[in-house]
Structures are given as C-alpha cells and as structure tokens.
C-alpha cells in the first residue's frame, strides 16, 4: 500500500513538474516577446500577474505533494526497521532507496525551476523599472534635458581635474622623498669622510711629507741635469 501511494504521488509530481517547467518557459518567452514589441513600437509591458498567481499556486501544490511523498518514504523506512520484517531483506532496502532517490530528484528539479522562474521575474521587474526611468527622462522638457547634460559634463570635468591634481601631488611627493633620501646619502658620505680624516691624521701628514720629498728630489735632479748640460755646452764651444 505504501508503494502504491508513493508511485501515485510520484506520477502526480512528475506531471506537475512538467507543467511547472512549461510555465517558466512560457513566462520567459512571453516576456521576451513583450520586450521586442516594446523596443519596436514602444508598446507597454503587459501585466504578468496571472502567470505569477499560477506560479504561486503550482509551487504550493508541488510543495504539498513533496511533503506527502516524504511522509510516505518515512513510513516505508519505519516499516523496514520494524521487528516483524527481516533486517537483511535486500529487495525492501533497494525499493526504499529508489523511492528516496526519486524524491531527491523531484525536490532538486522543483527548487531549480523555482529559482530560475524567480530570477527571470526579478530581472524583468528590474528592466521594467529601468524602462520607466528612461521613458520619464525622454518625456521631460528639452531645457531640463539640456541642463542635465551640462551638469553631467561639468561633473565629469571636475572629476578629471581632481584626478590630475591628485596625480601631480603624487609626483611632487615622490620627488620630495627622492631628494630627501639623496640628501641623507650625501650627509652619510660626508660624515664617513670626516671620520676617516680624523681617524688617520698621521697618514695624511706622512703622505704630504712624501709628496714634498718627491718634489725636492725632482728640483735637485733637474738642477744637476741643467748644470751638466751647461758644462757640456761650454766644453763643446771651447
């Protein structure tokens, strides 16, 4: 008896889900056709309240059938777990699992179709409000439209000016940071040089003495070479 009830409910659910899916498809097609007529000859959208009411009614009926089928499956599960039924009856467990899978498939299909329908309806309602806003804008006076366009252009110019000012400020800040870092590097180099000069004064004095001695030796050598040259010239002429 429980299997017969489950099959009957499954058949009813199958027919309801097919009709429910066709309703969603026809709703989308009707909306597309009305949108095409609206874009071609500016015909207003027809009211889809009748289809919405049909959708709500069918959704409630399918939810009730799913609830009944869930109850039947629970009763079959209780029967298989009762004391008078063999616990290792594979046929009963297979039948119960099959009905559970069918219930799960029907539930998933119902929620998927319902979500698609709601998404289409929400999108169409949003598009309808956008079209109304466009029509109200177009129906406004030419002076107001012109004034709005001027305001929009002025707003865009102000945004561009703000963006340019921000870019200029960013460049100036980056330049300032680079100059500051370079000044710090030069100061560190100068301090290091001063530290080295103060740390090795004897080396500096020694280098200076060596340079003075080299210069003196150069003068002496030059003098000797000059004297020898003069003596050679005098000897050559005499």
From TrEMBL:
Segments crossing the lipid bilayer: 219-237
Subcellular location: Golgi apparatus membrane
Keywords, in A-Z order: Golgi apparatus, Membrane, Protein transport, Transmembrane, Transmembrane helix, Transport
Topology of the protein relative to the lipid bilayer: Single-pass type IV membrane protein
Superkingdom, natural source: Eukaryota
Keyword Cell membrane belongs to the record: no
GO cellular component: cis-Golgi network; Golgi medial cisterna; Golgi membrane; SNARE complex
Record GO biological process: endoplasmic reticulum to Golgi vesicle-mediated transport; inter-Golgi cisterna vesicle-mediated transport; protein transport; vesicle fusion
GO molecular function: SNAP receptor activity
One Pfam assignment: V-SNARE_C
Listed CDD domains: SNARE_GS28
Record's function text: Involved in transport from the ER to the Golgi apparatus as well as in intra-Golgi transport. It belongs to a super-family of proteins called t-SNAREs or soluble NSF (N-ethylmaleimide-sensitive factor) attachment protein receptor. May play a protective role against hydrogen peroxide induced cytotoxicity under glutathione depleted conditions in neuronal cells by regulating the intracellular ROS levels via inhibition of p38 MAPK (MAPK11, MAPK12, MAPK13 and MAPK14). Participates in docking and fusion stage of ER to cis-Golgi transport.
Family from the record: Belongs to the GOSR1 family.
Protein name listed in UniProt: Golgi SNAP receptor complex member 1
Organism: Psophia crepitans (common trumpeter)
Taxonomic classification: Eukaryota, Metazoa, Chordata, Craniata, Vertebrata
Gene name for this UniProt entry: Gosr1
